[in-house]
Structure formats: structure tokens, C-alpha cells
Amino acid sequence: MFAAITAGTELATDIQSGFLNRLQLTPLRRVAILVGQMAGATTLALVGALAYLAVGLIAGVDIKSGAPGAAVLVLYAVFAAVAFAGIGATMGARTGSPEAVQGVFPLMFALFFLSSMSMPRDLISIDWFRTVATWNPASYLIEGLRSLVITGWDGTALWRGLAVLVGVLVLSFWGASRGLATRMART
User: Fold this and answer.
1) How many CB atoms sit inside 10 A of residue 128's CB?
2) How many CA atoms lie within 13 A of 150 on its CB side?
3) Average pLDDT, stretch 118-139?
């Protein structure tokens, strides 16, 4: 979530300050702008994932999928951060307002709160909450990550989470690219 807000806020700040207008005078393509914004989000996500993994291991977490699972866990977390950064970039490109991008945070928080983030779906006793968590794509993201630590290599949870991530990545980067196409129309 923080990667989405950070990437989108920075892009919106570049738009609002006129920096993007100055870039229109160069042969720079919009994909290069998106890749540059995502490089920062990727670096932040990698550092954060490694820090969380280190703290977990120091605290005594036993990763059931072993050392290869820990590596996949870090890669999965970075991929998730980049996919969600695309949502922020879409909002930043469409609105051009850092405040509007930051206003998305409560919606994303609600999306994760109404997922299986706090508890596995089979342990949720409230029917409506379990139904919402089942339909919520964020649940499958979280369950993919959770499976590497708790159950080991659960192929079903991993491919479902990966499918959600690929879907979010493709849609969000398409939206961000379309938003930048409008912003970077040469006059």
C-alpha cells in the first residue's frame, strides 16, 4: 500500500510542479517515466521485505518452505509492491494531485481490512465477512504470502496470488500509461 501511495504521489508532484511538462521537450517515452518511478518503489519494497524477513527470523519465525521459500517470499512481496505502485501511478497520472493519490490510501486500507489479512478465511466465523474476504482479490495475495511461511509450498495459493498480482500489474500500468499519454500530449 505504501508503495502505491509513494509512487503515485511522486508522479503527481512531478505533474503538479511542471516537471513533466519540461520532459515533453525531450524524446523521453512515457514508459521510461513509469519505469523510473517504479524503480524507486521496487527498491523501497526490497529493503522493506528484507527488513521484515530479518526481524521475523530474529523473532523465531520458522519458514516452512525453507530458504528457497524465503527468497520467493521477498520476490513476491516486491512484485506485489510494484503492482500496487502501478495503482498509485495511475491515480497520479490521472489526477495530477498528490492529495488525491493520498486520498486513495483509506480505500486501499479498507480493501485489505476486508480480506483474509487478519485471519485465514476458514477461521472467519462471521458469514458476511467470510464472503467478502472470499470475493476480495487481496485475500489471495495475502494467502500466497502466508502459505510460504505457514504451510510451505502451496501451489494453489501461490498461483492464485500470482494471478491477482499479474492482473493488478497489467491493469494498473495500462491505466498509468493511458493517463500519461494524456498528460504528455505534445502540443
Assistant:
1) 8
2) 10
3) 91
